[in-house]
Amino acid sequence: MKINEKLISYFESSSSPVDKQGYLSKKGEIKTSYQRRWFVLKGNLLFYKDRPADRDVVGVIVLEGCTVQLCESEEHFAFSLVWSEPGLRTYKFAAEDQTSQESWIKALLSASHSYLAVLVTDMEKKYRENGDLTKFLITISSNFIQDKKVTDRLSHNHMDDQSAVHH
C-alpha cells in the first residue's frame, strides 16, 4: 500500500500521544544485517528513522493483524512481527536488553485496533456501572473525531495515489 509520505511524517511528528519510543535494531530485507533505528509507536503505526531528531521517517509499519513472537537470532533479545496473510513481510528486531525487549513486546501487543476495541468495551461497561455514560460518549467521540481526521486524510491521499497509478 502506498501512503502519502508528507502526511506520515506530519502524523509522526504531531502532538498526538506517543505510546512508546526508543532504539531497536531492525533486520533489513535487502541488507540482512541489523541496523539501529529510532522507533516511535503511535496507535497501530510503528514509525522508524535513523535518529530521534531526524525530520524524515525512513519507514512505517501498520501493525493491524500482526502477532509478536520471540525469535531465535544471532542477536540477543530478538523478536519479530509476523502476519498470517501470505506474502506479507516478517520484521525482525533486537532490543538492547531484556527489559527493553519485554517493554516493546507489551506495547506492540497492545497496539492493534482489536485490542483497543476490547479496552473501549471495558471502559464503556465501567462508565455504565457508574452511571456516567454521557462522559464516556463525549470522551470516545472526541478521540474518534481526531483519529478519523488523520485516517480520512491517509485514505484520501492513498486513493489519490492509486487513481494516479491507474490513469
TrEMBL record:
<keyword id="KW-0175">Coiled coil</keyword>
<dbReference type="GO" id="GO:0001881">
    <property type="term" value="P:receptor recycling"/>
</dbReference>
<dbReference type="GO" id="GO:0005829">
    <property type="term" value="C:cytosol"/>
</dbReference>
<dbReference type="InterPro" id="IPR045188">
    <property type="entry name" value="Boi1/Boi2-like"/>
</dbReference>
<dbReference type="GO" id="GO:0005802">
    <property type="term" value="C:trans-Golgi network"/>
</dbReference>
<dbReference type="InterPro" id="IPR001849">
    <property type="entry name" value="PH_domain"/>
</dbReference>
<dbReference type="GO" id="GO:0030136">
    <property type="term" value="C:clathrin-coated vesicle"/>
</dbReference>
<dbReference type="InterPro" id="IPR011993">
    <property type="entry name" value="PH-like_dom_sf"/>
</dbReference>
<feature type="domain" description="PH">
    <location>
        <begin position="17"/>
        <end position="113"/>
    </location>
</feature>
<keyword id="KW-0333">Golgi apparatus</keyword>
<comment type="subunit">
    <text>Forms homodimers and heterodimers with PHETA1. Interacts with OCRL and INPP5B.</text>
</comment>
<keyword id="KW-0967">Endosome</keyword>
<dbReference type="Pfam" id="PF00169">
    <property type="entry name" value="PH"/>
</dbReference>
<dbReference type="GO" id="GO:0005769">
    <property type="term" value="C:early endosome"/>
</dbReference>
<comment type="similarity">
    <text>Belongs to the sesquipedalian family.</text>
</comment>
<dbReference type="GO" id="GO:0042147">
    <property type="term" value="P:retrograde transport, endosome to Golgi"/>
</dbReference>
<dbReference type="GO" id="GO:0055037">
    <property type="term" value="C:recycling endosome"/>
</dbReference>
<protein>
    <recommendedName>
        <fullName>Sesquipedalian-2</fullName>
    </recommendedName>
</protein>
<keyword id="KW-0968">Cytoplasmic vesicle</keyword>
<dbReference type="GO" id="GO:0007032">
    <property type="term" value="P:endosome organization"/>
</dbReference>
<comment type="function">
    <text>Plays a role in endocytic trafficking. Required for receptor recycling from endosomes, both to the trans-Golgi network and the plasma membrane.</text>
</comment>
